[in-house]
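Figure 6 in text form: structure in, sequence out.
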């Protein structure tokens, strides 16, 4: 999908990417590689709080997030909106100062910061000024009371893939879960949806990165003994998944024998290199949206953006689309949390009243090359609720 648009039938305006002069879409003007468009004089000011001068690789991520927001502002070509970047320096104190500067500059919306401790500090300032924030942290503890998290939140994708698996007749699960906070969150979400669907999980094993073999053997023994198991829930990521796949295959357990299901942690390049995972299912945005965005980003700035860059593009696009509303109503609670949500690079998303977010995801199947969409992402949340 080429841009973010209001996903409601009764919206006052239709915000369509092609109509805004997107690259390759006809109309508009050309943006030269590396050209910045911040500092515009539009009356609607949107602050972007990022760790621009933070040490290490963080600064490079911040630069990409800033460029993605600039690309969104350019794609929409709305002269009434100004993007106002502020450097948080990657620290709570820097985030607080950046938020204070944004308030002083008259920002009506704050996008960012990136880290939970930054969000916590900046939010104190934003709340006092009555300015909402759309942040990139994945720590739900910082959400709420005017702070909305656009990030991919742990466990929120689990109901989609488990419900899909159960709709395909998978009712009895084995669970192989990492001994991490992410693993605990994913397993809790898994247990809830399995119970609601009348399924069962008779086999459970957990592993640490230092010792995977015992847990793998526990699952393999249950599967190879003929115990009734339809699928294996494996909420691991690119750091653990290749090793797990190798060990599972060595123990005679592959997705060809037993349906593997994962989470969004499986959504990384070349996941299909592990033959044992081929045929496995996982929830993720439709790759078409990201591929289109990454191509436009590379054409404009050079290089491949980090995966998180789409969040900045979508946040800025949301800000521009809502800027059409009257002053004082642009970024109100009711506008930001509309039940029908918004659609962007990563598909449908809606900000919830508690500050977290919900996404409409596709189901992808691991293939030796490019993953294949086996269940499309919903076009509306009314459709998503039927999954």
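Output sequence:
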């Amino acid at each position: 999908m080429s841009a973010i648009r209001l996903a409601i039938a009764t919206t006052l305006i239709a915000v369509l990417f092609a109509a805004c002069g997107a690259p390759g879409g006809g109309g508009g003007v050309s943006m030269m590689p590396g050209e910045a468009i911040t500092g515009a004089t539009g009356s609607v000011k949107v602050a972007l709080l990022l760790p621009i001068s933070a040490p290490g690789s963080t600064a490079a991520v911040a630069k990409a997030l800033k460029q993605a927001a600039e690309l969104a502002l350019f794609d929409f070509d709305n002269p009434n909106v100004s993007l106002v970047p502020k450097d948080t320096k990657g620290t709570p104190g820097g985030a607080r100062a950046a938020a204070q500067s944004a308030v002083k500059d008259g920002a009506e919306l704050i996008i960012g910061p990136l880290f939970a401790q930054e969000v916590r500090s900046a939010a104190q300032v934003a709340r006092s000024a009555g300015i909402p924030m759309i942040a990139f942290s994945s720590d739900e503890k910082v959400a709420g009371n005017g702070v909305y998290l656009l990030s991919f939140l742990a466990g929120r994708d689990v109901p989609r893939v488990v419900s899909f698996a159960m709709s395909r007749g998978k009712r009895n699960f084995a669970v192989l879960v990492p001994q991490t906070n992410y693993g605990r969150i994913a397993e809790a979400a898994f247990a809830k949806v399995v119970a609601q669907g009348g399924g069962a999980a008779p086999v459970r094993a957990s592993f640490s990165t230092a010792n995977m073999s015992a847990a793998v053997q526990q699952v393999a023994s249950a599967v190879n003994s003929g115990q009734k198991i339809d699928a294996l829930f494996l909420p691991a990521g690119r750091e653990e998944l290749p090793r797990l796949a190798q060990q599972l295959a060595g123990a005679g357990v592959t997705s060809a024998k037993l349906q593997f299901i994962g989470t969004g942690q499986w959504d990384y390049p070349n996941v299909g290199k592990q033959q044992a995972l081929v045929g496995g299912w996982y929830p993720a945005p439709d790759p078409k949206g990201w591929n289109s965005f990454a191509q436009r980003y590379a054409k404009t700035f050079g290089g491949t953006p980090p995966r998180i860059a789409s969040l900045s593009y979508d946040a800025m696009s949301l800000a521009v689309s809502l800027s059409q509303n009257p002053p004082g109503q642009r970024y109100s609670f009711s506008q930001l949390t509309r039940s029908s949500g918004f659609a962007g690079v990563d598909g449908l998303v809606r900000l919830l009243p508690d500050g977290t977010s919900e996404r409409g995801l596709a189901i992808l199947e691991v293939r030796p090359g490019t993953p294949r969409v086996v269940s499309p992402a919903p076009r509306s949340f009314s459709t998503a609720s039927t999954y």
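Caption detail: The radius of gyration is 22 Å.
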